Model the fold of this input.
Amino acid sequence: MPPQPKGRPRTSPAQYKQVGHDLVLTRAARTYTPARTKAYEEKLAWMLRSAGARPVTGDLGIDLVFHTDRRGDADNLLKAVLDAGNGVMYVDDAQIVDIRVRIVRDTPARTDLILFRPGELVDTDVHEGSRGSSPGTARGLMPRHTGETEAESASP
Done:
């Protein structure tokens, strides 16, 4: 799935009604996530669940490689993934205490993800596709969805 940066929150204005000499609040201002961002986070959460993700507790680290030919801020790309992982890979993204993010300008666009326990050795070379175009295999607490069926991944 191509990386997508988290959209900035939107705010709808408060609405007031004139009642005599007073303005009465009829609807409070509301802040919401843009529809495109919400759809991306929901699709990513679904893909993570399909790949076997289950919420874990305790301090965690995340290693991400975003493969894209588009420009984007690493922090906005990261935030979309962290928010999608809430309740899916971890209870809350506040558990993430070690963050490693790289952007690789190449295609096909995709995101490689490893979730790990801080202090454990993480082999960052599992991102085989970081220098080429073939998708890597992620190891750690979160298996990376590659689109393979179980039969394909089990064959030598």
Q: What stands out?
A: The radius of gyration is 20 Å. Confidence is low (pLDDT under 50) at residues 124-156.
